[in-house]
Amino acid sequence: MTPAISVAGLSRRYRGQLALDNVSFDIEPGSITGLLGRNGAGKTTFMRIVAGHEFASAGTVTVLGACPVENETVLRQMVFVREDQAYPDFRVRHAVQAASWFYPNWSHELAGALLEEFGLPPNRKVRKLSRGMRSALGIVIGLAARAEVTLFDEPYAGLDPVARQLFYDRLLAEYAEHPRTVLLSTHLIDEAAGLMERVMVIDRGRIVLDAAADDLRGAATSVSGPAIAVAEFTAGHPVWDRRRIASQESAVVAGALDETDRARAAALHLHLEPLTLQQLVVRAAGTPVAVPQERTSA
Amino acid sequence: MSVIVTRYITQVMNQGTTEGTGLLREMAGLDEGAPLFVQVAERLADEIADGGLGEGERVPSTNELAAYYRINPATAAKGIGMLTDDGLVEKRRGIGMFVADGARQRLLAERRKRFAERYVGPLVAEAGRLGIGADELAAMIRESSYAQEGTRI
Fold first, then answer.
1. Shortest CB distance from B70 goes to which of A169, A215, A258?
2. pTM
3. How many CA within 13 A on the CB side of residue A52?
4. Could you give the CA distance from residue A118 to residue A167 in angstroms, rounded to a whole number?
5. For an interface test with B, which of A28, A32, A172 has the most B Cβ atoms less than 10 Å from its Cβ?
6. Exposure of B20 by Cβ count < 10 A (0-12 exposed, 13-18 middle, 19+ buried)?
7. Is B37 in a helix, a strand, or coil?
8. Which of A40, A43, A9 lies closest to A23 in space, CA to CA?
9. Considering just the CA atoms, what is the radius of gyration of chain B in Å?
10. Residue B17 has pLDDT above 90, yes or no
11. B62 contacts on A by Cβ (under 8 Å)
12. Does A42 or B5 have the greater pLDDT score?
């Protein structure tokens, strides 16, 4: 199958500063991928290049098998929702209508339903909308476009938790009924973790972690309790981090734990807590780590 | 024993004993660290064993599960796939997935087997160490059952 998005050796340089450094990967059609990383890591640059809004300094990008730049066929199958999308001096309904002319798979029904659910007044001028409402408008357009490739770059600035939950629910429902390739960048990692099939972490222009979300769950565990017991338990395990206060210690053990490990931890009265996706990403964005593999138990 | 059945059994066995430390649950490998699709499979197996999802009844679709748990549909599909591999649910072309005949009995049988291994074995061993005979042990169990409200064996 042709990848929905394929990049090879992609680099982007701004005045000697590398925003993207030799990035290569393929994204299969019909998947939701989380693109995670710190501010300035290169997420937006990456999405802009995929969307054909910006040129690569080196390397190639293909979207749906073709170069996206100035390619109408591809561009009409791709929607890019940005955090700070600027609109002309439009009313909400004009912005929606303009989008409906551009995207061949546009759903008027869905757009109407979403406008209502997000409480967007169709006659309000876009520049009079609050930050959250402007984000909601981007989400409405991004979902109603039903574009084969859907790029959401921090789509929910200013949105309250209720509206964000609405976004996740509608995204899942839409994705289930009309599968497409979704690339979602977000800082609200744990909130969106369940949506993602694949997780990519970008740091200083490089992909530092690229894994199936399922493999990351339980990929590392925090072990805490009396320092002596923690030391006994962690002997032979790769340890990422240790913190100690008085006689108590907390250590992060890399690799999946098996039942024997858990029984040992229980016998030693240790508390186990798996690292959340967010914690794993925080670790990955900073220190390049290999994808944790299932550890063969001793 | 299949993975899902094992996980399911340990989960059931630990119910009611996990308050407080949660150590038993962790021992059983049941915590947030389990992949989401395994958790989906566990919940469904739970429903089947409790009779909430009867044999021959339709199992929620991938999309229904995805919407309910707010997870990726591919993850939900993997969860159902585990149950299919175990023969607990079966596909009827064009209609959906259904609970297989005998699924509940199989889950319950595994639960009993696990109960014997996990609890009765160690109980008898410890009783032996303390010189408690079989009759005395049975009497103690009976006494304990009367002491616990709502539990009669």
1. A169
2. 0.78
3. 19
4. 9
5. A172
6. exposed
7. helix
8. A9
9. 18
10. no
11. 176
12. A42
Sheet holding A198-203, edge to edge: A78-81, A149-153, A181-185, A31-36, A198-203, A206-212
Query: Total structural domains in chain B?
Result: 1
For A281, the token pair is 């990403």
Residue type, A217: R
pLDDT at residue B149, rounded to an integer: 64
Rounded CA separation A137/A147 (Å): 16
Q: Regarding the domain with residue range A5-215, which homologous superfamily does it belong to in the CATH classification?
A: P-loop containing nucleotide triphosphate hydrolases (3.40.50.300)
Spans in chain A with pLDDT lower than 50: 288-298
Q: Which amino acid is at A66?
A: A
Q: What is the DSSP string of A107-135?
A: -HHHHHHHHHHTT--TTSBGGGS-HHHHH
Q: Domain for residue B131, yes or no? A: no
Q: Is residue B37 part of a domain?
A: yes
**For position B2, what pLDDT does the model report?**
54
Q: Where are the alpha helices (DSSP H) in chain A?
A: 43-50, 72-75, 92-102, 108-117, 131-144, 161-177, 189-192, 213-216, 227-234, 259-267, 277-284
Structure confidence by residue, pLDDT tens digits, B116-127: 888 888 889 889
Answer whether A217 sits within 8 Å of B71, measured CB to CB: no
